[in-house]
Amino acid sequence: QMACHTVHIHTKQRASLPWGHQEVPARFNFAIDVMDYWVGMEKAGRRAPGPALWWVSSHGEEVRWDFGQLQELSQRTANVLAGACGLQRGDHVAVVLPRVPEWWLVTLGCMRAGLVFMPGTIQMTARDILYRLQVSRARAIVAEEDVAQAVDTVAPDCPSLKTKLLVSTKGRDGWLDFKTLLQ
């Protein structure tokens, strides 16, 4: 049996939250307790459908996901992390991605799988990446092509690092392909 705590919402916030207060489970998980809740609200007709994520690239490319799509994609991401990547609850995952939709999928996927999500900026140097991987004992890193070379340079000095997951349109030796695994 899970203990719950009541969260009281300030009057100004009440306009956006029709229920006024929400029971918060003792083992709160944003991906499950918020995302999945909003999906249920939309399916039940208690909330108007709308985009959960709307991303536009610098080239004008758009990605628009509703809560149901984001739920499904984040569940598939959690399965990739726990399955192909072999990660287990409590494992640390370094994430070095620019502002792309996959950042949100990995964030929510980590939450769903019980993984410790460690975001990092794409401006990190190889030395920065090495420090974070060693101190955290990260078991995996999710990165994009521009950061992959720096990761490959420091990976031999990171004995806990078992999985490298690439978010890119190109493949790379020694890396799993996120987009292929997500399909």
From TrEMBL:
SUPFAM superfamilies: Acetyl-CoA synthetase-like
Glycoprotein in keyword set: no
EC number: 6.2.1.2
Domain of life: Eukaryota
InterPro entries assigned to the protein according to its UniProt record, in alphabetical order: AMP-dep_synth/lig_dom (IPR000873), ANL_N_sf (IPR042099), Mitochondrial_ACSM (IPR051087)
Residue stretches making up the AMP-dependent synthetase/ligase domain: 51-169
Listed GO MF terms: ATP binding; fatty-acyl-CoA synthase activity; medium-chain fatty acid-CoA ligase activity
Entry-linked Pfam families: AMP-binding
Listed GO CC annotations: mitochondrial matrix
Coiled coil: none
Reactions this protein catalyses: a medium-chain fatty acid + ATP + CoA = a medium-chain fatty acyl-CoA + AMP + diphosphate
Enzyme class: ligase
Keywords recorded for this protein, A-Z: ATP-binding, Fatty acid metabolism, Ligase, Lipid metabolism, Nucleotide-binding
Gene3D superfamilies per record: N-terminal domain of ligase-like
Family: Belongs to the ATP-dependent AMP-binding enzyme family.
PANTHER family with a match to the protein in the record: ACYL-COENZYME A SYNTHETASE, ACYL-COENZYME A SYNTHETASE ACSM2B, MITOCHONDRIAL
The protein's name in its UniProt record: medium-chain acyl-CoA ligase
Organism of derivation: Myotis davidii (David's myotis)
Lineage: Eukaryota, Metazoa, Chordata, Craniata, Vertebrata
